[in-house]
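Appendix B. Raw example, untouched.
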Amino acid sequence: MKLREGLWLVGSGQFGFEMTHRLDCNIYLIGDGDEYALIDAGAGVDTELLLSSIASTGVPASRIRKLLLTHAHADHAAGAAALRQRLDLWTIASKDAGPWIESADIDRTSIGAAVFAGVYPPDYLYPPCPIDETVSDGDNIEVGALSLKVIETPGHARGHISFALDEGDGMSLFAGDAIFAGGKIVLQQIWDCEIEAYARTIARLNDLRIKRLYPGHGPFLLSAADRHIAKAYDCFEKLELPPNL
């Protein structure tokens, strides 16, 4: 699904557009014509379907060179190992999440708790994936002529990062699970989901005046994303919780 010039939604599951496996998050392909990157990897259950969707964009596989991961949860990162191997991708994660993805840490990725809760089937596997580069707040990731700025956005998960792109006419944000359309968030009963950190993240994103929002689930926003983020910010300011996705 082409969203803008040089940007496609290539994967999305049951909480989005049902394009690929139901457990997948939203997966984006972005580039400048010479080089491209995938943002998030999905759950890794049906890699062939995801690869078919990527191929349908017409972007040569040889030009897709990087994989950017927002956080270590399985629906975003468990597909990384297969994509890295099949497309020979330079794989990037945060300094916190990188080691958990590399080791497929059952506790730190919360996959053990998620399987126990029935979110994933009992036989679900989270393959370990080598991480080629770890990044921190303020770092820039170059994708051809594009420069994506790393923003640390904890709250939903420890080690969560988002990627901001200044497109001249406004800021775009690849938010992972930090914020969603309608000002929604995702709070879960897992070890690293922290309300206070979430409130600080939303306050920071509110200051950025984001125009376009590309979240990890649900609909994307091609304009006025700042109004949606402001809804979540206003809830926290009133000592309330924003609506949960």
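End of appendix B.
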